[in-house]
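Pasting as-is:
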Amino acid sequence: MSVLTVEPGAVPAGEEPPDTGERHRLTAVTGLAALSLDAMASVAYGPEAIVLVLAAAGAHGLGYTLPVTLAIAALLAVLVASYRQVIAAFPDGGGSYAVARTHLGARTGLVAAASLVLDYVLNVAVAVTAGVAALTSAFPALYPHRLWLCLAVLVLVTGVNLRGIVESAKAFIVPTVVFVGSIFVLIVVGLFRSSPASTATAAGHASVLAGNASSVGALLLLKAFASGCAALTGVEAIANAVPSFRVPRAKRAQHAEVALGAVLGAMLIGLSVLISRFHLQPVEGVTVLAQLADASLGHNWGFYVIQFATMILLALSANTSFGGLPVLLKLLARDNYLPHVFALKADRQVHRHGVLALAGVSAALLVFSGGDTNTLVPMFAIGVFVGFTVAQVGMVRHWRLERGTGWRGKALLNGFGAVLTGVATVVVTASRFTEGAWLVVVMLPLLVAAFGAVHRAYGRIGERLGLGRIPEPPHRERSVVIVPVSSLSRLASEALSAAASLGDEVRAVTVCHPDPEDRAQLHALERAWAEWDPGVPLVRLTCERRTLGRPIAAYVREVTAAEPATQVTVLIPETEPERLWQRLLQNQRGAVVAHAVRRETDAVICRLRFRLS
């Protein structure tokens, strides 16, 4: 007979611990819904960015839409393959930050982290404003209220994410499926048409096609490629949020990454084929996606379904940032580059402080831009390209150090991707520098400097605390407990009882001001104290000024100077009201005393809560 012995905390093979929070983590499907909205929604503006650039070369330039898109799809395949390897090599998440920190040094890692932080924040602002722009395009009467609509959408997405990443994923599965399904229906139907079903959407709108340009140079194609790479934002989000997946985390995240690349690549190529098939030309006031829906499905209910799905998904694609950035902030906090509060995790596996910080900064950007997408777009995507490039270079070094099977081919693939994304970074930054990209160029080094300042501060704190060193053994010192009192009550009795349990000697202190009324109250207290005789001396602290905390702090300093080997504790008794609103009735004397003692002395502060319920 065999006996199975399970140690405390151990779990039999093949089973998950019963209460590890796994049910609040992502599967491959929910991970795709929660973390791919940014990338999926980019098909609404990625192909359009290519067309708008090539339109400068006239109709001849538009003929290069498909080749440019194929080049972007090839880069997408490289990125997906790279981030699939990043997920396996760095299952704790962090994406390009983790890669750069490990293989390129802490400083380069901080550059990657700063670029991702900027990209995530800008993604929220751009996604929300773009979604609201689609809504106000359908209902012009709402246009004057677009800022409030943006803030309302931001509050909605933030609230859903505070409920947990799984709950947010479930909420966004339906919009994602509807959008992706409608795009593929548009593509399939369009492939069977020899001519557009309708051109009503573009009718009456001025064309932005250049009429006097016919040559297509390498610089124009490069700029179109770089602009179209905006469709690749969000590819890194899954690699950043690997800890949010269920076990086996790396495998599930890899499956989600591959599915994202396949779906996004198919949509981009399919839409590009239709643009060439229908000889579509960009016009003012109408998106390229709207024209494609009109040409493939006709100006009917199908057209409006796609527009509505696009509007919803654009607005909700901010969820990608809420899934990825809090995990990145947690890693930065763990490495002492951000306040440790960002490493705390609430119920349902929520990094609440990261979610709230992202929402706050994004709200500030929305107010700054007035809810206008065009103000934010020039700053968008630069950060993620920097992260792409750093991650690819880091993975090249990873393969060179590891030298496993086929490492040369893998390193060559990552090196090729680094060249492509590096070129895209330079081109996008140069072409949009005066349109707002300069702000990202300025903010990147400022963020890196801020990370460094926080790290140095934690280093000084660790040095003072002796972290990493074995401290001296604890020893007992004589202790004096000082209790501020103002009258005799049950609160004073409870405070003196607690103080007697804490220290070797207890002293009650009361502050007296020179006013006749205050002196009369002091004499009454001293008579009552003598009659009560609690066995604790009452020390009178006279102060000419109407202040409470400073005289007590000064007395603590006197005791500390007179008895340097004595541990001084100030026990402050306070009432805890039965109702929340009754806190407004309190005089806050305890808070005043605690603030003064904390600021001016090294005494231990103990605040005794006496519940009135």
